[in-house]
Amino acid sequence: MPCESRVPMPCESRAPVRESRWVELRERWEASTTARERAASTNSEGAASPNSANDGARDDVVDRQPLNETEGFGFRRPRHLRAVLPERVETGRTVSLIVSITAATNGAGISAPLKDFDVPSEGAVVTLSVSSRGLVPRGESEQDIRVPSDGDSEPHRFAFIAGPVGLHHVNVDAYRGGTHLGTVRLEISVEANATISEARVRTAELSTVAFEPGEVTLQVRLEEQGYRFQLLGDTLYSDVTAMMGDSRDSVEQLVAELHAMAADQSDYATPGLVRDRLKSLGIELWSSAVPKGIQEQFWEQSDRIRMLTVAADHDVIPWELLYPLNGSNDNGFLAEQFPVMRRAYAARRVTTLPIGGAAYVVPPASPSDAMVEVEAIRALLGTRAGDHGVLSELSDVRRLVLGDLGLPGIMHFACHNTFSDRSGSSITLDGGPWKPSDLAEAVQRATLADAAPLVFLNACRSAGQMAWFSQMSGWGTKFIEAGAGAFIGSLWAVRSSAARAFAEEFYQQFVGKGQPLGASSLSARQVVQSDGGDPTWLAYTVYGNPAAVATY
């Protein structure tokens, strides 16, 4: 991963920070909330101090027992993740971000429609995690807050020093245990000479505070100090910041070797030797890409992990290949222990994937068995899912993702994905190449958001090597940003027969047997794992909620 050096902060030469700014922002916050809601919030037991960011160091480990969300509910009411941040600040100055979980959206700002937000009568503990590459934190970047059943949480302050001049993004994520609840994304302009501007409110819908037992999220954020790792689960650990070198060359070599294995051109004579080599690659990736502190946290709770989600900035690491090893602790590749998923930042957490229909994309010169794959999926879906037909024209695929042909619940691609240094990743359709950047309009218009389809890009060959991985990640994040509920794709070239077997087993589990997204993908990996000389079972990446299920 590329590492950016920390930009020196010229704060010492500046005028003293105005501590009254916190008071001013707090007053503005309270002015936008009714007296009745403030009373409900401030009278709640266990409310955190608004100055908790400055109350001293937090313990390294905070044990958080899961709350029973089937008994003792107090109120069912809408909730929002709410954040206030000035739009403009002078470089080197202190700036305050104020975050709360509220039951209303009074005051200025952008609001979203609300769903039920279930909070037990004793309240719910939610972890707030804040990150920005352009702001340097002055204290903790994670805080636990208590959300009362009958009101708002107390506002919590995160303090930063404004970094280099430019427009910077700030992400606020809310977690319950290892389950991601929602994200607010803000912007702040850092200028050479500026007065702190009026703070604006941003809100995000939180559909629920329920969390999946055994779900753990590995959050990796690129900041000025380096990469910040946080392992979020039933136990809250300290975050770990690591200065990591540029790993692109080593990943390029790794993916080149995986390509050779998939093409049955490996230097190793037997499937067993290929499996041994894969294990060595996975162990090396684990030891080089994951900091020691996170490794220790993983082993402390490894027997309780049932699913793992990775949320990472500027991702060039094939996390699915990780093979944790610690002395006699050897449970295999992560991807064979439990579902390994990915989450794109700011992506909503979809709990159901409506399978109201399916569209298939089979370009000219697709794998010879592409239509066999399509017919097998059609048979599994049956008559309950409408058939939107097989598309091969570039103009039709563009209309499909823009919603002009209706929005099916499944978009399945059986094709080749090619790569060149000059033009990047593309799928050659009848009429021209189709690239991740061609989803820009769909992203801006969020054309897939209403249907939240499952997109399965089952590409069986690539002309490139290292860039194949990063470009496939590009396809996944672009589809998710356009509103897809889930995305599945291969990170390197895969064998056609194994790709078809993976797809058929996945749909059999997800649609035919009603298994969750994560469990279905794990079952599909296991089916194609039997050929020890083929790394296809490790090639697939899955974006989405591991607990999401198919509905009609």
Descriptive account of the structure:
A hairpin with a 2-residue loop joins strand 25 and strand 26 (432-434). With 552 residues, the chain is α/β, with parallel strands linked by helices. Residues 1-26, 32-75, 107-116 and 461-471 have low confidence and may be disordered. The protein starts with 19 loop residues before the first helix and ends with a strand. The strands form eight sheets. A six-stranded mixed beta sheet has the order 22-21-23-27-28-29, with helices on both faces. It has a five-stranded antiparallel beta sheet with strand order 8-10-5-3-13, covered by helices on one side. The chain has three domains: 10-213, Immunoglobulin-like (Sandwich); 254-339, no CATH class; 352-551, 3-Layer(aba) Sandwich (Rossmann fold), CATH 3.40.50.
Concise summary:
26% of the residues lie in helices and 31% in strands. The chain has 552 residues and is of the alpha/beta class. The strands form 8 sheets. The chain has a 6-stranded mixed beta sheet, sandwiched between helices. It has a 5-stranded antiparallel beta sheet with strand order 8-10-5-3-13, with helices on one face. Strands 4-12-11-7-9 form a 5-stranded mixed beta sheet, with no helix packed on it.
